[in-house]
Amino acid sequence: MHTFLKMPVMWALLLSLMTGPVTAMAATDAASPAPAANGEPVDPVKINAPAALTALQKRLDTTKQQVATAKTEKKLNALNDDALKLYDDAEKLLTALGPQRAQVQAQLDVLGPAPAAGALPETPEVIRQRNKLNASKTLLDAQIDQASAIRTSAQNLSAQIRGLRRETLKTQIALNSGSILGISFWTPLFSPQDNDVARFDDFGAQVKDAWHQAWQPEWRVGSAIYLLLALAIGVFGRRALDRPLGWMLPRWLPGGRLRRSLLASIATLIIVVSQWLSATLFCQFFVRLPDTSSLLMELANSITVLAVFSALIAGLGSALLSNRHPSWRLPGLADPIAKTLASFPITLAAFIFIFGIVEVLNGLIDSSVAVTLFGNGMSALLVAVNCLIAPMRVNRVRRRLLARGEQPEARSMLAGLIHMAISVTAVVIILALLVGYIPLARFLTYELVWVGLVLTCLYLLIHLVVDFSESFFSPTTYSGKLLKSTLSLNERHLSLAATLFAAVGKTLLVLFAALALLNGTFGTTTPLELLSKVVDIWGGKGLESMNIIPAHAVNAFLFLAVGWYVLRSAKRWLDKDFLPKTMMDRGMRASLVTLFSNVGYVLIILLTLSTLGIEWNRLAWIVSALSVGIGFGLQEIVKNFISGLILLTERPVKVGDLVTISGVEGDIRRINVRATEIQLSDRSTVIVPNSQFISQNVRNATMGNAQGVATITLTFPLDIDPEQVRSLLLACYELHEAVLDTPAPSVSFKELGPTGIVLSVTGYVASPRVVSGTKSDLLYEILKALRAADISLSQTQTMVLEQPVEKQ
Fold it and tell me: Which residues belong to the signal peptide in this entry (predicted)?
């Protein structure tokens, strides 16, 4: 470790030349004469220690206050220098107080202890000297303790500042910390600081002690088992599980796309589980020991998490490329391209794992910022180079295929965008490292890895969910046949269910991926943490300001569905069972059912809003928005709605009435919330807005049980017998069964003119709806009666003008 991290000599010499007022006081105090042989006390405080301690404490408090508000790397660096200077000054004060305390102790030793009871008493002068020396010793001990506390606080403050600087490097991506081509970047590798050397040596000593303890006789067998199992599972675990599963699953699973997506998912899970188990066993090799330090235990936990992330990267790459089984490959990649990319996921996972451990170790041992920057820069550089070489290799293979006359796979626009985004991001990372923006490069590296990991998992899981839905509800599979026979479903229903479940699954996966992208970071976010975040959001945590709780939203949706079903059932019961047993007419029953439905829907909406958590006194914004909406387009809708309510309550027209409005005559079939349906005599339907029934003249032919009038007007020649014709017409009306006896039919003499006699015969029928049919029947009967009586109708006189022919 010393060969890797050695201390610069010039830096040590520079520190040795730093002096201050306290150093001068300590030197003066160290040069003071020794106590006299006769035990005479000397002044125990040669410097103004109380003033120096007060000044040091004030500097410590001021530095702490400034650290609490510091945000930039430059400010934290200056405060760290102040803390180190404070540490040195406190150390110098302790160095100055140490000889004085030793001098007082020496004088007390000369005087000896106080005589025991009953012994020869000391002189008053000796007693006075002993009391004075004890008081001086007590004062010096208190000053030394205070100086030690200030020194320890300054040391801890410096460590905290270094931690803040490391965290600042993660957030201040615009900080220029020096190019990777500069000497300062490589200094931690070739000329490390003395503090870093000591910290790494201490860590190495802890690892060495734990290793030796693990091979002690009482731990030897367990250590060997843990180590062998970790190596065996890490190296051969995937192969041991991959082959039997690859043989069994194709025989158990139905043919189709589910086989590919499920095998890819299981292959990824096998790699993750095997590497996680291997890392856990290896960490237990150290963690199970009773004397394992807390640093090693924290490092072991971090190694396990990093092993899972790295294994997930390698597993996803191996499963999606599927070089062992090309027919199981999900992406449309040619075999040469897939084989070219085979090593890149493993290399990327190795880089992430190694330098992730380095970053965690830097934080645990509290290494310097220079070492942290070196680790971040190297990890960003290697990941960027790996991500840049992969697309270049793919392009080269595609060009070779085209040169040989082979057609590579057709690349979609999305695949091209992903290819370009990876390349551009890798180039930006390398440029940032060359320019000196190492925090920016580290941020882009982790975001590239995290976004790629989340999107790759999303791609695989979406395929799995869609393929599972299609296979589960397929009419050719066992599950689909069972659902079809049990629930009496047809193939159309199974297809709808497959589409619905696939859409819901994809939506949930996309939302979960968005949550992971927005709230997760690589290396620190685990699936359990994401699930915990989902549960928190489900309970409304983080959304309090918007007063949104997803759990309440689901409850509101369930209440809306149940309320809608109950309302439909109650409406059907009223319409089919209860109201037909009353004395109400059909129109009144239809109006009551419609009014009941409208009121029910309003109540359901209000109760749904209440279940959602929206308080009634906070609905002012809804009213305001509705007012604005009415002014910009909802006025007609609201007007028709209010008119519909008036029609249902006042009932100037009702269902079944024969009305005439705006030249349209027909029967009212339904009064809806916004418009009324009128059925014409030709069975066509006219939709009339409800507001027209309120604002326009409406003729209701059936209001108040109105009777219909069948009136026929006929023109007869002047030479007929009017009484005979009158009797004939009345007889035809009286004989027709649809014509009412009361009021009795009548014949009116309407007009007498050159064209003839105009007679009008009128009779009443039960309803206006039968007027047309009755008139048709009466015309048939009247025509037959007139022919039988040899009475003809008047003919229109035609004047023919002839021009005389001129003689030739």
Answer: 1-26
Burial pattern 662-681, b for ≥16 Cβ within 10 A else e, equals eeebbbbeebebbbbbbeee
pLDDT in tens, 266-318: 889 999 999 999 999 999 888 888 888 888 888 888 899 889 889 999 999 98
Residues in CB range of 690: below 8 A, 6 or more apart: 640, 641, 643, 644, 646, 647, 671, 672, 674, 675, 676
**Tally of CB atoms within 10 A around 82:** 20
Task: Report how many domains make up the chain.
Answer: 4
Helix (H, G, I), strand (E, B) or coil at 720: coil
Tens digit of pLDDT for each residue in 61-81? 888 888 877 777 677 777 877
Q: How large is the C-alpha radius of gyration of the chain?
A: 50
Same domain, 276 and 189: yes
Residue 512 lies in a domain: no
Are residues 202 and 150 part of one domain? Answer: no
In which domain, by residue range, is 672 found?
650-700
Q: Which residues are CB-neighbours of 672 under 8 A, at least 6 positions away?
A: 594, 644, 690
Non-local CB neighbours of 447 within 8 Å, separated by 6+ positions: 522
Residue after which a domain boundary falls, among 171, 187, 204: 171
Residue 401 lies in a domain: yes
State the average pLDDT over residues 31-36: 39
Alpha carbons 39 and 477: distance in angstroms, whole number? 106
CB 90 within 8 A of CB 153: no
Is 73 part of a structural domain of the chain? yes
For the stretch 503-550, pLDDT in tens is 888 888 888 888 788 776 665 566 666 666 655 555 555 554 445 566
> Which CATH number characterizes residue 729's domain?
3.30.70.100
Phi, psi angle pair for 711, to nearest 5°: -115, 130
